[in-house]
Amino acid sequence: MRGAGRLLRxxxxxxxxxxxxxxxxxxxxxxxxxxxxxxxxxxxQAVGTCxxxxxxxxxxxxxxxxxxxxxxxSAPLLGSRAGWSVYYNNTSGFEDTVTAYATCAA
Length: 106
Known about the structure:
By secondary structure, this protein is mostly beta strands. The protein has one domain: Immunoglobulin-like, CATH 2.60.40. The protein contains no helices and eight strands. The protein has strands at about 10, 15, 30-40, 45-50, 55-65, 70-75, 85-90, 95-105. The strands form three sheets. Strands 3-8-5 form a three-stranded antiparallel beta sheet, with no helix packed on it. Strands 4-7-6 form a three-stranded antiparallel beta sheet, with no helix packed on it. The protein has a two-stranded antiparallel ribbon with strand order 1-2. The radius of gyration is 15 Å and the shape is elongated. The two termini are about 30 Å apart.
């Protein structure tokens, strides 16, 4: 298949995952981020919000200290496509910074 990317198989905490990349030719897109800092251990939300008149094509999450970070969900904002929502628990007992990413386009 012409232009196909590689299939990545990263290993995190001895669990192998499959990561897919969907590529397109959208030229007017931007990455928006939302940052959450937490050390409570309870469930917390981080949101990347798209600018007005754009929608989220996809999104993701990154933790600064992945040790003890449990990602519960990573999905479009409920009831809208105006951003990307991530719910997570930080079980490490230490403060962690989590970033939600939204890939937005008009």
